[in-house]
Amino acid sequence: EVEKIQIKITSLGLTESRITADETIQQLFVECRLNNFLTEETPLSLPKPPSGQRIHYNYSTAINVGKEDNHAEREYLKAILLKPDLPADSLKFTVVSDPPEDEQDLECEDIGFAYVSLKEIFQKQRDIIEQDIDVFDSQDASAVIGKLTVTVEALNALRSVHEECKND
């Protein structure tokens, strides 16, 4: 069986902020990135929810980190486990504003970021299942603009990588 990091982006809710107030922000999608390797995104962008409500993506994906063809990804996971000061130890989720059809001159804009620490999953020996994580404003990293409900199942892959580290 190929080792994978399973990721599910369930839903997104916004709190009152510049995002909910900004009428040019209408459609949102979510991107998930592991370091510089791989970016996955929800196939749909959904209408921005009013404050206090949620939009549901129910999007699942998997990042393969099996030994066969994913050497760089595995080396990165090893670095996360072995180097305590590696800053980029997280899966990064980006909430992106998708311009409306009739405004094609507008760019997709990153409006918020959320993070799941893979190192923490390994330290706690616990996957993250349907957990609300904070989404921070892309223009002000201290401001929380909403919650993203995600699942990240990485423990088995991390354990396997850790075993390999011990054998190297």
TrEMBL record:
Question: Which GO biological process categories is it annotated with?
Answer: non-motile cilium assembly; retinal rod cell development
The organism's superkingdom is given as Eukaryota
Q: Which GO terms describe its molecular function?
A: thromboxane A2 receptor binding
Q: Which InterPro entries does the record associate with it?
A: C2_domain_sf, RPGRIP1_C, RPGRIP1_fam
The record's GO CC annotations read: photoreceptor connecting cilium
Which segments constitute the RPGRIP1 C-terminal domain?
Answer: 3-164
Full protein name: FTM protein
The scientific name of the source species is Pheucticus melanocephalus (Black-headed grosbeak)
